[in-house]
């Protein structure tokens, strides 16, 4: 029987938020944008009488595992723990700096190594920071398609901050708008409901944590695929 990765909470009024920060400097503008969004979301949850529990995944702490994983195809303990943390999340904030008109290699590598099923239906705010507004379309032009492939549910408002945006009140308004969008999806438990009702409707990778154990390895096709004989 195929099993799904379900966001879980012992309290129906507690919501789990996961923040993935690909910023590498300290202090980091990427981390600051994610923190402002997190704080805004926490206030929104509080006003609704709910509790927001936050887990932060710092990708700079996983840089060695990410590099090794991309070469070997194997996941280290940090990546495995990140998979488990994200699987329990009701929502996600994914934030990256922009380098050469793309999200960072650290950010891309991390999401390439995650279990392909872990983000199905998970509400996500996509965020990026850069030194110039010329990179503003990276979020919607590149990152949104990446998360569509991962079958996440990206909120309508993405967040981008260049150097000149930090003193602009418009950034705060966008943060509030994106946070409210994420909160509405988290509050509905959209991810859990989708997985409970439609999990079998998705294609799952063979060998993934959710591919199930109902694959017949003795069929002629599987024998040929693994180098054996169908005769």
From TrEMBL:
Residues 17-166 form the NADPH-dependent FMN reductase-like domain. The keyword Oxidoreductase applies. InterPro entries: CE1759_FMN_reduct, Flavoprotein-like_sf, FMN_Rdtase-like_dom, NAD(P)H-dep_FMN_reductase. It comes from the Bacteria. GO terms for molecular function: oxidoreductase activity. The keyword Oxidoreductase applies. Keywords: Flavoprotein, FMN, Oxidoreductase. This is NADH-dependent FMN reductase. It comes from Gulosibacter chungangensis. The lineage of its organism: Bacteria, Bacillati, Actinomycetota, Actinomycetes, Micrococcales.
